[in-house]
Specification:
heterodimer; A: 740 residues; mainly alpha; two-stranded parallel sheet; 30 helices; B: 575 residues; alpha+beta; four-stranded antiparallel beta sheet; 28 strands; phosphoprotein (chain A); nucleus (chain A)
Chain lengths: 740, 575
Amino acid sequence: MESDTSENYEDFYTEDDAQKHEKLVDKVLSLNKTQHIRKPSRTEPTLQISEFNLVKSSGGDKGSVEINDLTKSLRNRKSRLRISENVKRAHKASHTLPKPLEKPQANKIRRTVAYEKTRLELDRWEATVTANRVSTNLSFPLNDDVKMDQKESENFASMWRVKSKLAEELEKHEPTVEEYHISLEQEEFPLTMKEMLARRKEAAKLRAYQGYKEAKARRQNKIKSKKYHRIQKREKIKKKLKEFEQLQKTNPEEALKKLEEIEKSRIEERFSLRHKSTGKWARNQQIRAKYDKESRQNLAQQLTLSRDLTQKSKTNGSSSEEEDEDVEKAPMGIDETNPWVNGVKPGKEVADFISGYRKYWLEQNKTAQKSDVEKTEDVLENSENIDSNLIKLDQPESNKNVLLKKKKQKIVTSDLNFDVEETVEKLEKVKKVPQKKKKQKRNEQMNNSKSTSEWEVSLVENGEAVEDMFNRTENKLKKKMLRNVKQLKKKLVPKTLAKPQREVAKDKVKVDLSLPIQKKTPQIDEALIENIDAEIRSNEELSNLKTILSSQTKQRPCDIDPEKYLKINPTNLATGIPNIVTNEEVDDQRAVISEAFEDDDIVEEFNKDKSNESDKDKPKNINLTLPGWGSWGGTGIKVNKRKKRRFTMKAPKKIPRKDDNKGFLIINESAQNKVKEHMVSEVPFPFKTVKDFEASVRAPISNTFMPETAYKKLIKPAVTTKMGTIIEPMSKDLLLNKNS
Amino acid sequence: MGKVQRYFNKTEDISPSSKTSPSKDTIVYNIKPKLKPWGRRQSDKVINKKKKVVKLPNPNPKFKGKVPIPKKRLKKYARGEGINKTGIKTKIHQKKFEKKEKVIKFAAQQAARAEVLLIEEEGFLEADAGETTTQFTQKQIRENVDITAASKCFDLRLEDFGPYRMKYTRNGRHMLLGGKRGHVAAFDWVTKKLHCEINMMESVHDVCWLHLETMFAAAQKEWVYMYDNQGIELHCIKKLHRVTRMEFLPYHFLLAACSDMGYLSWLDISIGQMVSQFNSRLGRLTMLTQNPWNAVLCVGHVKGVVSMWSPNSKDPLAKMLCHKAPLTALHVDPRGQYLATAASNRELKIWDVRKLEGPVQEYKLITAANNLNFSQKNMLALGMGNVVEVYRDCCTTATKRPYLRHRFTTSIGNLNFCPYEDVLGVATAKSVTSLLVPGSGEPNFDALEANPFQTKSQRKEAEVKSLLEKIQPELITLEPNVIAEVDIPTLKDKIDAKQKLLHVKPPKINYTPRNKAKGKGGSAKIAKNKKIVQEQAKKEFVKSTKDFIPKLNIQKEQQKESGVLDRFLPKKRKT
């Protein structure tokens, strides 16, 4: 199949061998799956060589086009040297953009930034959240406006108060002013019937007129005759021109404004894609252009149009403008050859208009030849300065403020009567004495007036005399601008110098907060490391627990038998002697006997009891010897002493008892077992030590033990809701309100 | 290729003028970079709270604010040392507990302030020079006090049903008396209104009020019977056999009894269940008293020993050798501070019953005391034969002279101080007498605790409330506050168990991979497999060790009784 197609191709293109060869190569290459990046090639024959379309060839430096080489095309022209110098300078100063980061890295950065941002946003809530969490009682809705109620209550109380005479007197002297807010609209009288009807009529008329106009416009739009449209546009432009001329005479300010509008339209044209030969139509034309003369012409026309529309009306000093000039000349040639161009659609009127306005300027300049050469030179210098500054600033154009306009008006009106010399001197003075107070205002002005200055300068550059009035205004503006530019620079420079310091400071803050380095481990080991971590954690827990234990609250004071040290002598009480002795103890003799043997009997028995009790709790040695193991067995065989010693498990030392030092007391320590079920055997969460937990439970809550007021406080519910109110989520206003 | 200056890369040429030091035109802004808080923790650190205390001027200088509470009184109501803030884990919890501490402190202050309301003070007899209070007779006292107080001194002559025992209710309003020969009577002794009077027709060894004045128990010849205040028999408790003495533990709703046979028993009267009953193995038990502080029963023995019992253990919680002679009487004061014991060798000893130390005071009497009783203000009444003597301040200091003395014609059965009244009730063989003992009772009563002027509805309310606040019998121990403590031995055991388990190393597993055909395995794969197997083994081991700890606790749960329908419950997974 492929061979067939290739033959077909050969049939078609027999003349061009090179092309054929290329095709063949392409085919062969396409056999391979891998994609080849092709060298981009220029398809559109253009006279203007844009830097964007320059191609870096694969062959390295040799094949690539250098801008410096392009300047050679200028040959022996005057401007060549300057341009080439500019290019060289640009080479030195420029930097290539850094390579964009790889996607994962870029994403990472984006994520961190996003995280930081959201975190800071959330941090704002921290205070309120903690306050709410800490508070013992929250009553919803939270942001209840309490102030209102307070005010009402204040009034309420004062309602019942009887005013003293003095107070009444005072009130007479200084009556409280009550504010009444009455909307003014209500004060207006309603319209009468007649008026209403009149108004209605008017409105109807207006609507009818509008409809008529619309219909007319629609009709006119439907007319397909190009000639008609062309004529119409021409008329329009003529009309405009006339108006403009009139304006020049009557109201120069308005004229200025008009000019501005024109400039604006140019700007719009510049940044729009109209007439840029990038549209679908243009591309089609491009394809056809190789073989079709007409389409080529069309394209050229289109391009010239765009150039016409976007051209600056002046060039001054800088290289870019020169280039513009060069460009300008080329389409002019086309214009002459191509009559079709004149009929081209929308740009035409504008171009006409511009040309008309140029004519006007030429005329004006001729009339203004009387003015001194010196002044013009001065102005020229200023203008040049300004221009260069402006280029350096490279700030976006902005619409004029109303303020600026007003200022201008003032300037114009005031300066009209002065001589040029005076004004210049004045301006110079002004230059010398900077007005510090109005710096900022001026700054703004400068920013706003920048765009206007450009065209003004161009006029001067043409080397023709300008109308005095315009000159003056221009001069003023330029001077101001100059000053402002300088100030701006001065301000900008320290700022830029200060910036890095700030950044360093920020960096310092950041450095401290770098996260601790985490272990980086291959995934295979993950589980193992988890294990270790768990162990470490549990060890920590253990140590915590140990601390809990070590910080036990109750360290029993060493029990000392007070009997040994504090022997209380019995005091004899002179009790009454009863007449009757109870039946139970009749035997006096028996009592005497028991008294005689009391120590032997009772105390001995008690001590025996005590020793028994303590023995019960004492852990005993366990003998694990097995007779017959490793030795002869049988009756009457004694176990080896060494063996006995080896196989007895020694019990731990005696645990101290509560009643150790109290001879008269036996305490049963195992009796507490039943309570233990109810006791807490672990230190619950927020507590670190046993002591603190016990302290937290030390006070009862119920009102049998607490005063009622305290009890109410203790049992206050954590959350209460107001009946019948909508509880809405917290809003950001809460963060602003200081009181809440 | 040379670099091309792009329009957006263009940097402004810094003019030489601006490079030099800032001229007059320029404004130099001194910017202090404020260090922003970075991160949550840091931000917390950065914010320094400086509390500024602004004292507003006193709007009314006449009123100088709340009266300060004397420190001594505050200390009396204080709940002890608070929580150390550092002992709590998170800041939020710290703040929460700080708030709670404040409330507790506030409660203590409130209580201290409320003491102003306790306006009543106990009185006492003051003797002139050359006189002693001992020589004042009841007749003299009665003549010198007001009528209402005088009416509280009376004598009931009960000739036939001889030796009597008597008891007061907790609020001191009602009296219950039981004669050995079967006479039992309950009455409001202030108004002398009789509730009931019964002849049991068999011997009555002891009588005891239950939680209210509407119910009482009588230990009769064989069993214990319960009656209501109209004398209607409610219960006959045959499990309480041949009971000699009874005590009622009001907060636990337990009727404690000791028997002739040496049995001790606790009967929960709220649910009618015997909580515990066992033989003390200490012979016949005739002396019984309760320690109101911890609800432990104190039993006196012939061998000079006082044993302390709770229903939770069949061995005494403590045994104290108080005398070297048989005990004749014992009593614990209402606050649970002192234990007074008397023995047949004419000794009287006062012990510190909280520390189980002593004796605090030791007295030698001329005759042995058969009866002892503490009043609410720590007066001690001794009954010896037919003489009753009351001592003041005999616990802290050694007194020498009795405060009051009274002689009866017959020997004394028992004596009781009446709570909230300056009255000592004495039951003798042939009479029941109430004597005036000035300054013996607590003058200020807590109406929610024990109200002598209780109405019927109040009584009902109090009954319900006290039932709701009933304390379980398991909590009867020597130290009643033990419930608010951490069980340290078990905590230690738990920690030890954990420690032991953690020290066991997971076993190493030697894994020898199977030889596989060429191309299937590869050394990398083999290594991987080995790791996987080892990890699995390790995980299993860890899992098994983790299950070990709960098992210790679970064992008790498994002992639960299994119901019929338990078979339908989801079966527990075996691990």
